[in-house]
């Protein structure tokens, strides 16, 4: 329970006032007084307390009599003492599209100014003239200061100031306050996703997605790092690819939604530590070899023009903080989006991407580790593996009578993606195609042990057994099969994740029963069959019923910061509260890892 | 009386500790325990209080027994509660070479770091590794951040950090703490002076002086502004001249004193508002015409490399704040050096340069105005006028028996400089060569009224009387004389100053009796005969005995800031406390001005 005293604000309603104070509170109906969710209790306030009961959804007559009101229908014509339900705070940081709103307090804002013209009696300097209205702000950019006098004169002292925190980053003639945009960008090793956000309304206008153009230099971060070590200009080359991609993004926003890049004033980035370093042109070679330490865990705020990014030249480029060489801004962002540092119950976060990041803890602190899961779950290093593209087999169903599958876009199969592989391995296990050690039956063994349809699918690849999912022509563009080696890859990946979870639990001295929620981040989590993932031990079976897929939570966190600057501080709090466990350094890790190779 | 609790610091003495806390305290002997000035009273501290009396200068046995000690001889091996005499605070802001020291707390400082190398158990990022020792500092320069990893590795994690406030501006391999320099620079319309300061000792190593290279575009600020209006690249041209001159200065420091420009990390500038604007490349055209408002009264901190200044590329370039278009950072600096805002008695500051700035007030507030005195007192617009160069007549003595003069450098006279002109006009007045309205006697009138030597010196120039000081060959390289028009120029100049003083006194509702001190700033003040200046009404005769010549106080203030960053805040306090009176706008100013044309 939080108790507040409002200042008297004639005419404003309490919901608006609370939002300005940074409270993110439920209001699905948008303040129309019909959803009954923005409940507060008025403790002091004569007019508010003496109002007759109007018959409101969400508040009973009994509740009304002890002061419960809807914030959206309570006007601030007097000073109120109010009580705010605890739940608001918890809900404040969870962004579940639609249900709750993030208080709109962007890091960048615009203020339209109609300044008094100078006279001989008022020789206030041009910049001090701005400060008369804006308070004690700074202009750090000399070019901006140099252009100030002319801009004011040409626009008869009517200008719009763009502020990032306390710094004036741009000035525009006339009233341009209706054009204020920001973008949240997740730079993944494999894919890049950016959301354009209208900072006046909080609306997400559109999203841009692309493959990370660095992919030509290798699938994983190690191969990218290697490129910077082997080629003198490798670092600049990889950096330029990212910068060019961001410029393609703003071009796309301009052509698709008619939003001028000039009016984008803030880009907030998340990504793993290597991606953020490459973006800023910082060397990454130390991250590749022990002791893996990065240059920094904080990117300074960068002016867009310094990197040649085609937004407003003085746009602020920021990044969420990072934790270690292999726990990046994307993980911090996921933690932010799940709010797990604010809950008293324990949460487990599993982000399965090209690498696997695991975080465990509660409001008393978090521990993180990076599991070398490898890219098998993204379809890489799998014989017929493929990313989540059209034609990828994404769901497989094996019954004694046979095997059926679906593909993305309902196209003829060209390969198998992560969710399909998980389905496959789980059902191979259940049907006896592989044993608990992952060993696949031979053709001969299959004749005895398997139903005929399954037995007929056992083949040989490179001297080991393989399992045919589809032959060319059977809804497939080519033969698709799973090899013994593929099963081993999945075993390595799932053992790495499971061992990571186990080590973190040991460090925190808790067990599965203590874990209230398991957040599964990444695109993978949206498509995977959770029961199959539990069957193969990729997700802990002990947490059945507690698993929540949160999609691209890294991007969600990045958007939260774009919309409400206070989340940047929350992110810093997360960084400070999150410890890092280096698994390779952990006594007993190898044993735990090997233990988890088995399917239990 | 101020009471402090010290933290326990093994081995450090109290004097050092107090200095680190920002206390500027008297210690003429440099902490050797012999001058007896750094007296403090220990209130709590067992060891310190139980020490036997050693017989000390400055502390009697009685005083010793009630706890008086010398800070320089009191070791911090225990927590002390101490009392500091009030007088220390007041003395802190006055810089009177030798007697008291400015607490050496430069805006830039160096810290030598021997950092632990990263291990798999300590994967702290390179930058966070710095922060472990330096606290919550920032690196804003991307280039610096990019070079960090390599620098640390190459120097086995032994590096020196250079800090400006909270920002790391440079990093150097090994221990370079003994090389830390700054420069204070006064950019005058006519001359430039810069002092190189060792920031480890506070020693002023040397001074560089030159003419302002912009002089070829005119003697006064108006002609410089006109150049920027008439020529498209005029502003950049004038800026470049100043930047080039600063680079000549650092070259000079390097060749003359062996101090590498790389090791200069801070340049603090003062100058009039036009000079500071031109230095930063900011337009000045508004300052030339009503309402005279400048672009800004604050320069942001600029990185040297942004302007191409040859110091350390990340050196901080700062300026003291300005007050108005015609009251600049130089005036703020003079106020800082005189400490006039801290005194309860009224002080009057007169800075006579190419323009005349006047400030009046006390600790309750200051008022300033700019008097259009013109450059006559610098020898310009005077027929035989010349600056204070070798061969300039600087002192003149007229007796009934004749006239004698001295020249700078004892060279044959080539002209007459400001102090000579003041001598001349005062004595022409006393001897009856001019009357109280400034009218010069004709040759005919002279025959009757003047002693024969003086009468013989009256000649005619351009149809009006003139007075010959020396003919060619009489210790002079050419004939030197004063014209009727020259006298009128001096009358205009002195009337402008006197009217300015009078208007400020009227605004503050005080009179000459209320003024305790008159500070005369500028090179001019050092050489002028004060009695002659009072005779002609250039300085108020009512303030006889109260006039203090403070030389280049603008440079003194700039040096104070270089040595002790706290003075920057004091300068900002001055800026806020100093009002500006636009004389041209003042009802009654013309009457006061004309009244003061007469010699009284």
How are the elements arranged and paired?
2 copies of one chain form a homodimer.
Chain A: E1 2-5, H1 14-20, E2 39-44, H2 46-50, H3 61-65, E3 68-70, E4 81-84, H4 86-92, E5 108-114, H5 126-134, H6 142-154, E6 158-164, E7 167-173, E8 181-187, E9 191-198, E10 204-211, H7 221-230, H8 234-257, E11 264-271, H9 273-280, H10 285-288, E12 302-303, H11 304-307, E13 316-319, H12 329-338, E14 346-352, E15 356-362, E16 365-371, E17 392-399, E18 402-407, E19 415-416, H13 418-430, H14 443-449, H15 452-457, E20 458-461, E21 464-470, E22 480-483, H16 484-508, E23 515-521, H17 523-527, H18 530-535, E24 547-551, H19 553-563, H20 566-577, E25 578-581, H21 589-595
Parallel strand pairs in A: 8-11, 11-13, 14-23, 16-25, 17-19, 23-24
Antiparallel strand pairs in A: 1-4, 2-3, 2-4, 5-6, 6-7, 8-9, 9-10, 12-13, 14-15, 15-16, 17-18, 20-21, 21-22
Helix pairs in contact in A: 7-8, 12-19, 12-20, 16-21
């Amino acid at each position: 329970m939080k108790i507040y005293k409002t200042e008297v604000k004639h005419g404003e309603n309490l919901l608006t006032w609370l939002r300005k104070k940074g409270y993110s509170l439920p209001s699905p109906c948008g303040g129309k007084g019909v959803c009954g969710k923005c409940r507060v209790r008025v403790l002091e306030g004569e007019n508010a307390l003496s109002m007759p009961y109007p018959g409101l959804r969400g508040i009973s007559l009994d509740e009304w009599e002890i002061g419960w009101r809807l914030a959206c229908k309570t006007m601030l014509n007097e000073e109120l003492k109010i009580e705010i339900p605890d739940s608001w705070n918890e809900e404040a940081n969870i962004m579940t599209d639609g249900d709750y709103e993030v208080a709109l307090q962007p890091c960048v804002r615009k203020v339209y100014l109609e300044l008094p013209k100078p006279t001989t009696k008022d020789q206030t300097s041009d910049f001090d003239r701005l400060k008369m209205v804006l308070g004690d702000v700074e202009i750090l950019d000399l070019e901006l200061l140099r252009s100030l006098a002319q801009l004011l004169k040409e626009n008869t002292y009517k200008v719009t100031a763009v502020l990032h925190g306390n710094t004036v980053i741009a000035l525009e003639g006339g009233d341009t306050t209706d054009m204020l945009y920001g973008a949240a960008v997740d730079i993944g090793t494999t894919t890049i996703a950016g959301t354009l956000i209208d900072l006046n309304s909080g609306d997400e206008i559109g999203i841009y997605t692309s493959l990370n153009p660095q992919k030509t230099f290798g699938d994983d971060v190690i191969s990218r790092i290697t490129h910077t070590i082997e080629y003198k200009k490798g670092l600049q080359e990889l950096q330029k690819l990212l910068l060019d991609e961001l410029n393609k993004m703003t071009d796309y926003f301009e052509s698709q939604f008619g939003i001028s890049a000039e009016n984008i004033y803030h880009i907030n980035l998340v990504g793993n530590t290597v991606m953020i370093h490459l973006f800023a042109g910082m060397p990454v070679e130390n991250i590749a070899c022990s002791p893996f330490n990065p240059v920094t865990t904080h990117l300074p705020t960068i002016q867009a023009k310094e990197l040649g990014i085609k937004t407003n030249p003085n746009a602020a480029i920021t990044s969420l903080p990072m934790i270690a060489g292999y726990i990046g801004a994307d993980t911090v962002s996921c933690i932010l989006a799940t709010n797990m540092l604010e809950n008293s119950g324990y949460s487990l976060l599993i982000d399965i991407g090209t690498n696997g990041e695991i975080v465990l803890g509660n409001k008393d602190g978090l521990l993180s580790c990076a599991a070398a899961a490898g890219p098998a779950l993204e379809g890489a290093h799998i014989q017929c593996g493929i990313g989540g593209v059209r034609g990828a087999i994404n769901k497989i169903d094996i019954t004694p009578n046979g095997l059926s599958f679906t593909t993305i876009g309902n196209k003829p199969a060209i390969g198998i993606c992560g969710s399909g592989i998980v389905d496959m391995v789980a059902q191979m296990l259940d049907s006896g195609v592989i044993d608990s050690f992952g060993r696949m039956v031979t053709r001969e063994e299959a004749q005895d042990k398997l139903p005929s349809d399954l037995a007929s699918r056992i083949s040989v690849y490179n001297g080991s057994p393989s399992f045919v999912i589809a032959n060319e022509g059977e809804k497939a563009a080519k033969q698709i099969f799973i090899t013994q080696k593929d099963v081993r890859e999945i075993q390595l990946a799932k053992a790495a994740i499971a061992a990571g979870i186990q080590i973190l639990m040991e460090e925190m001295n808790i067990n599965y029963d203590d874990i209230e929620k398991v957040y599964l981040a990444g695109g993978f989590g949206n498509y995977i069959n959770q029961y199959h993932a539990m069957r193969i031990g990729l997700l802990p079976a002990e947490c059945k019923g507690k698993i929540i897929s949160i999609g691209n939570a890294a991007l969600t966190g990045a958007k939260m910061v774009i919309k409400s600057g206070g989340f940047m501080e929350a992110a810093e709090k997360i960084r400070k509260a999150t410890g890092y466990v280096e698994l390779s350094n952990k006594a007993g890790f190898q044993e735990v890892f090997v233990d988890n190779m088995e399917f239990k």
